[in-house]
Amino acid sequence: MKNILIITASIFGQDGQSSRLVSQTLDQLRQTYGDIQATYRDLSAEPVPHLDAERFGAFLTNADDRDGSQQGVVDYSDLLISEVVDADVIVMGVPMYNFGVPSVLKAYFDHIARAGITFRYTASGPVGLLEDRPVYILAARGGLYAGTPNDSQTPFIRSFLGFIGLKDVHFVYAEGLNMGDDKKENSLQEAGRAIETLTA
């Protein structure tokens, strides 16, 4: 049985196009692997707190010196990291908001990037500490951005995941979703075919 971690970040919840692409991917993974165990992390419904000085200070404080509040912050981060560690496959729905990733996704990333746990610094640079596994990114955009300088999402996500050791990253783009019904339908169909090919 494969453990699948599903991360969504659409402000429209399961009605968002990125979330619908995630559902298609999950259906396809069921066909590929048979029985799966899915862990859902809906960052819009249950936002991860944005990183501030207090929360970052909790990460830096020695375990023996943490107070109850600090330990709670660390325990929450540990839970998020454990979901990643336990997953055989990660599926992530990423809408584009104002040329970037949703702020809740950035907050999530800030809580799973922990020195000595998911990465470490060496004399030759940082090294990711997580075991690599497939990560599928379902990117939904109103306009056309892939392969252009305005696509800030792809390099950021790829760089961040690689930083913590996740390098087997696959992007599926559904673009032009606000450029008319025909364009939207064609783009979603193309994305569906890409999902079938990637997860077969």
From TrEMBL:
<dbReference type="InterPro" id="IPR050104">
    <property type="entry name" value="FMN-dep_NADH:Q_OxRdtase_AzoR1"/>
</dbReference>
<dbReference type="GO" id="GO:0016652">
    <property type="term" value="F:oxidoreductase activity, acting on NAD(P)H as acceptor"/>
</dbReference>
<dbReference type="GO" id="GO:0016655">
    <property type="term" value="F:oxidoreductase activity, acting on NAD(P)H, quinone or similar compound as acceptor"/>
</dbReference>
<feature type="binding site">
    <location>
        <begin position="96"/>
        <end position="99"/>
    </location>
    <ligand>
        <name>FMN</name>
    </ligand>
</feature>
<feature type="binding site">
    <location>
        <position position="10"/>
    </location>
    <ligand>
        <name>FMN</name>
    </ligand>
</feature>
<comment type="subunit">
    <text>Homodimer.</text>
</comment>
<dbReference type="InterPro" id="IPR023048">
    <property type="entry name" value="NADH:quinone_OxRdtase_FMN_depd"/>
</dbReference>
<comment type="similarity">
    <text>Belongs to the azoreductase type 1 family.</text>
</comment>
<comment type="function">
    <text>Also exhibits azoreductase activity. Catalyzes the reductive cleavage of the azo bond in aromatic azo compounds to the corresponding amines.</text>
</comment>
<dbReference type="InterPro" id="IPR003680">
    <property type="entry name" value="Flavodoxin_fold"/>
</dbReference>
<protein>
    <recommendedName>
        <fullName>FMN dependent NADH:quinone oxidoreductase</fullName>
        <ecNumber>1.6.5.-</ecNumber>
        <ecNumber>1.7.1.17</ecNumber>
    </recommendedName>
</protein>
<feature type="domain" description="Flavodoxin-like fold">
    <location>
        <begin position="2"/>
        <end position="196"/>
    </location>
</feature>
<dbReference type="InterPro" id="IPR029039">
    <property type="entry name" value="Flavoprotein-like_sf"/>
</dbReference>
<keyword id="KW-0560">Oxidoreductase</keyword>
<comment type="function">
    <text>Quinone reductase that provides resistance to thiol-specific stress caused by electrophilic quinones.</text>
</comment>
<keyword id="KW-0520">NAD</keyword>
<dbReference type="GO" id="GO:0009055">
    <property type="term" value="F:electron transfer activity"/>
</dbReference>
<dbReference type="GO" id="GO:0010181">
    <property type="term" value="F:FMN binding"/>
</dbReference>
<keyword id="KW-0288">FMN</keyword>
<dbReference type="Pfam" id="PF02525">
    <property type="entry name" value="Flavodoxin_2"/>
</dbReference>
<keyword id="KW-0285">Flavoprotein</keyword>
